[in-house]
Design goal:
InterPro entries: FAD-bd (IPR002938), FAD/NAD-bd_sf (IPR036188), PheA/TfdB_FAD_monoxygenase (IPR050631). One of its GO terms (molecular function) is FAD binding. By secondary structure, this protein is of the alpha/beta class. The protein has a domain of 30 residues. It is 40% helix and 25% strand. Strand 1, helix 1 and strand 2 form a beta-alpha-beta unit. The protein starts with a strand and ends in a 9-residue tail after the last helix.
Length: 384
């Protein structure tokens, strides 16, 4: 097959690797508009469950990536200065650029060609001529999807919260959600270590908090300075670092149809999952596995693309739905902080998507469940 992939992120690279490893005769080229050593953001995170899926599908890839990851067994919720460690929530993280560099080396070793700083701007571009399959893995703002929204049945719901993706030189002990009440409103920091000396430090606020803080009128350094002041106790003197960091809103993207003709969407181009559930990279790589598997039973491209959507839709939709419930929980974090004790707040966080029952909470962290039952005795009678 002649396969052309738009976008050198995890989805496109991993699909290229799977197809080339299965059949070295495939003619596969990946077009990436950025330089090899460029990326935005800082680290990416995987839950233990996400890594279990990867291991089940591809033990070799799991073993290839794991030595480069920082791992920890617990999640921490900080309600101002009260920190609650919650067991049964293991995670691993790696720098986004390091992950991409590892995947670049892997696919190139297999014989896939990657053309960096190459922008393909139309489906009629000469680079795509004669392709049996065109994979649009070019991110949440994919031009392929944007130019063919009717064909894909695209919807995009721009959510009101504001977030900015920073880093810091402080290596945190676990994935932590730190919520701090300020005169402007609640500031939330999503932070986790992704290398021995670096952490992601993503700051999220509700829209009215963003307005009251005056961020609209602050430059880059003043914005960083204000965030450093809010999280001074958490940063411990370490600076906040920027990498093309700017305030943005999250687009909840969905497509009713995942392909047309020989063109298929993959990764964030297909759908976005809010960063609060830490599943964006997982979903991208699982998309790649599912698309790869769809081509193992047939050489008919339309049939394979139809099978890809049929098999992948149910498990992916569950995560997408949970991500959208999760993002709405953050949209009400100011009100929750005002009325909840630290224990109630941590419990609310853990059960926010409806996928963790009280019985499951007792299994994961009996201490938090017991502390919640002291405040809400009726919870103990909740059936499993």
């Amino acid at each position: 097959m002649k396969i052309r992939i738009l976008g050198g992120g995890p989805a496109g690279l991993y699909f290229a690797a799977l197809m080339k490893r299965r059949d070295p005769s495939h003619d596969i080229v990946v077009y990436e508009r950025s330089p090899r050593d460029a990326t935005w953001g800082f680290g990416v995170v995987f839950s233990d469950r996400a890594l279990e899926f990867l291991r089940a599908d591809d033990e070799a890839m799991y073993q290839y990536l794991m030595p480069h990851m920082e791992t920890w067994p617990d999640l921490t919720i900080a309600h101002n200065d009260t920190r609650i460690a919650i067991a049964g929530n293991g995670f691993a993280a790696v720098g986004r650029l390091e992950l991409l560099t590892l995947l670049y080396a892997h696919v190139e070793k297999l014989g896939v060609r990657i053309e960096f700083e190459k922008e393909v701007t139309g489906l009629d571009a000469p680079e795509l001529a004669g392709a049996d399959l065109v994979v649009a893995a070019n991110g949440a703002f994919s031009w392929v999807r944007a130019e063919n929204e009717r064909a894909f049945g695209t919807t995009c719901d721009w959510r009101p919260n504001k977030f900015i993706w920073y880093g810091t030189s402080k290596p945190f002990d676990s994935l932590t959600l730190t919520f701090r009440q300020t005169q402007h409103g609640v500031f939330c920091a999503h932070h986790y270590r992704y290398s021995p000396g670096m952490s992601t430090f993503l700051v999220e606020v509700q829209e009215d908090t963003w307005q009251r803080a005056g961020f609209e009128h602050l430059g880059e350094q003043d914005t960083i300075r204000l965030c450093e002041e809010v999280f001074a106790n958490d940063l411990g003197g370490h600076p906040i670092l920027t990498n093309k960091s700017h305030w943005r809103n999250f687009p909840a993207i969905w497509n009713e149809r995942w392909s047309f003709g020989n063109v298929v969407l993959l990764g964030d181009a297909l759908r976005t999952a809010h960063f609060s559930i830490g599943s964006g990279t997982r979903l991208a790589m699982e998309d790649a596995v599912a698309l790869f598997k769809a081509f193992q039973g047939t050489a008919d491209v339309p049939a394979a693309l139809a099978q890809f959507q049929s098999l992948r839709l149910p498990p992916m939709k569950k995560i997408w739905d949970a991500a959208n419930v999760s993002l709405r929980w953050y949209e009400g974090m100011d009100e929750l902080m005002a009325r909840c004790s630290p224990v109630e707040f941590a419990y609310s966080y853990m059960t926010r998507t409806g996928r963790v029952s009280h019985a499951e909470m007792k299994r994961r962290d009996p201490r938090l469940a017991a502390a919640y039952e002291q405040l809400h005795p009726d919870a103990a009678a909740t059936p499993a």
